[in-house]
Structures are given as structure tokens and as C-alpha cells.
Write a structure and sequence with these properties.
The chain is of the alpha/beta class and 424 residues long. The chain contains 14 helices and 14 strands. It has 2 domains: 157 residues, Aspartate Aminotransferase, domain 1; 235 residues, Type I PLP-dependent aspartate aminotransferase-like (Major domain) (Aspartate Aminotransferase, domain 2, 3-Layer(aba) Sandwich), CATH 3.40.640.10. Helix 4 packs across helix 10 and helix 11 runs parallel beside helix 14.
Amino acid sequence: MSDPDIILSLFNKIRSRFPAFFLQSEGQKRLYLNSGAGSLMVDSCLQAINSSAAYLNPMPGQITPAERQTLEFQQQVRQLVADFIGASGPEEISFHFSTTAALFNLAYALRSLFKPGKNLVVTDLDHFANISPWESLGLAQGAEIRRVKLTPELMLDRTDLIHKLDRDTVLVALTGASNALGTIPPLTDLISDIKQKSGALVVVDAVHLAPHAPVDVREFGCDFLAFSGYKIFGPMLGLLYSRQETQDRLAPYRVETNQVALPYCWEQGMLPNLNLAGLKGALEYLLELGRAVRPRESSAPARKIFRLALEAIKKYEQDLSLYFLERWKKLQSPRLRLYGIENPARVVSRTPTFALEVDGLSPAELKKLFWEKGGIIIADGNHYSAVVVRHLKKSALNRVSLAHYDGPDSIDLFFDCLENILSH
């Protein structure tokens, strides 16, 4: 049985783990097709938040049992995150209010590198969380900001990236997957090229990649990587990986009494223990899924189990994408436009995230019609990937974004509603 078939065999059980999948709104069923803006929470996340509220001490410590329990709990969560992304250890993982906050903290910590004569490289494929921090701090410190363009096919222009690198490039910011289009750039190859030509630090925004495919920081070769708990079936929380060897370059904003060592130097004030508990519950769900995918390897290290789960999700979601593209092609309506990878042969380079428009309807109007006619929630706007939208000379686009708790039935409901909208 292939991994996609395994996900299908587990599908009813998987969907039952997400209480909010089908909710009622004023007596009407609703379908959530906006996981790119934030995934649904898995039941183990919700349960962990509730149970931890009763026993966790606000402050970790070494003396009392409650303090030691909280210290051990926080270390367990750091280790789980390290295993999830392939970090060397828990000291490379820090917690932040959000990914955007984590990347602003990182930009501030690296500000001494951004001198006149130096340059930073950002890409037009990115979410603004991985553009604005570098523009803000880089320009304030006198560095040049260089932007990597998109190809006519809306892919990252690799030639332009290499052209913009030199020995004065101190940092390159890349996305793991486009928040608007779902496009997955070849990170390992790109980072290898960057290191060979410039030796620059590389920061990866993996927010949109993390729920859809394995993330391995050592395989990628990046120096920093950020992602969000609320995109991987957990609560709002920003996670930052900082490679231990970069510590001598960092001067983070730090309360004087905080420890200087990683990861504590990153964290201002008390950690949100309830959010950490929810994150732990979400990651433990992915471990359960990985063990179900390959029961014979259920005693393997957590890193391998996470990879099994995400590889199975990736393959299953590729089938979802193929089905979505097949249904889209069958409509053959001149009013429809899809942006991003449409070629089924290249489906491995995308997540099940689809930017689209219907001629004659604004994105806000289309979103409203999907809700009124089908109880379906899709997105409108620039999805914080405003450069992509500007590149297309648009002010906004609609987006349908699926996750592994969606199935062909979700896609069928979407297209049934779309056909209804087009016919009227």
C-alpha cells in the first residue's frame, strides 16, 4: 500500500481529529478551504491546552517540583520542534509571538551586518514577513536591498538570484513555499548556490511549507528558519531555528536578566505555556500519523517518524492537487484564471494552494458568493504576498488552500458551488 493510499485508508479517522472541519454557522454547514491562512486545530492540541492549564507552573525553575516540571515540559517542546525540522538540538529552537515577530527579532539581532556597502537579497515570491524585516532594518542601517524577480511562469528567477549575489551580500531571505501560489522552490539547490557565490546567511520562511512537506534545516543548509504553530494544526506561536554556529553574529533585543546563551537570548519575558502545550499536542498528532503510516517503524527516532508523516501528507496532497487541476481544466470557462503551476507533471513543485479569479467578480464578491451559496470559506486579498499580486497587476486574488484533512469531496463541493456561481 502506497503512502497516499494509507492516508486514504486513515482518512475518516484523520478528519474526525479536527472538530472544526464541518461546523455549523447559524444552522448552516460550512466548509473551511482557507488552511493557508491558518490550519484547523487537531483534537490533541485542544486537549493539551485544557489539561496543561491545571498543572503547569507559570515560571520554570530548579527547586520546587512544579518549577522543575515546567522546565522539563518546555525542554520537551523544544526537542519536539528540533526533531520536526531536523535541528541539531533544542538549544537551536526559540519561541515567539508569531513568525513575523520572530523574523523582526532576527533582523534586529543581525543589524550590525547591515552596513553601507553591504546588501541583502529578498524575493518577490515571499510573504511580507520575510521581506519587511530585512527592508526595514537593512535600509535603516544603510545596506542595499536587492529583489529577486519572478519568471513569466511565476517561479523564482534563479538566474536573477545568482546575478544579484556578490561577496558583499550578507543575507538572503527565501520562502519554503509561496503563500499565494503554493509554489515550492528548490531550496537545497538554491542555498548551495548562494553559499558558493556569496557565503551569505540564509533565512527561510517555512510557514507555508511546514504543513505540506518535510522540513530539514541541515538538508536545506540554511542558517535560520521560521514557521508557525497555527499552520501545523496547533495554536498561534512563532518558531525560530537559529543554527548554533551563528550565535557570535547575533545581538538580539534582550532583557538584561535573560540568559545570553541560545535559545533564551531570543525570548523576551515568560513563555506562553498553554500555547506550547497546544503545539506539543499538534506535533504528537503528527507522530501518531507517522507511526500509523509505517507501523513497523513506530519505534524509530522522532525525526524519522515526522518525516514519514510529512512524506505521506505530501504525496496525498499531490493527488489532491492533481484532482483539483483536473476539475479546473474540465470547466473550460473563459471567465476563469488560475495562477501558479497548472502542469500536472510539475505537481511535486506545489502545495494544494490555488490562486484564482473569476472575470466579472471582485475577489470580495466571489468570496461572499461562495459563502452564501455553498457555506464555503475561501480567501480574498493579497495573502501577505503583495509583491506576487502586484506582479500580476492585481489588487487582490482569491485563494483556495487545502490540507490533508481535505479530500476529493471538499474539492467536489467547491466546484459544484463554482459551477453554480458561473451559471448565474
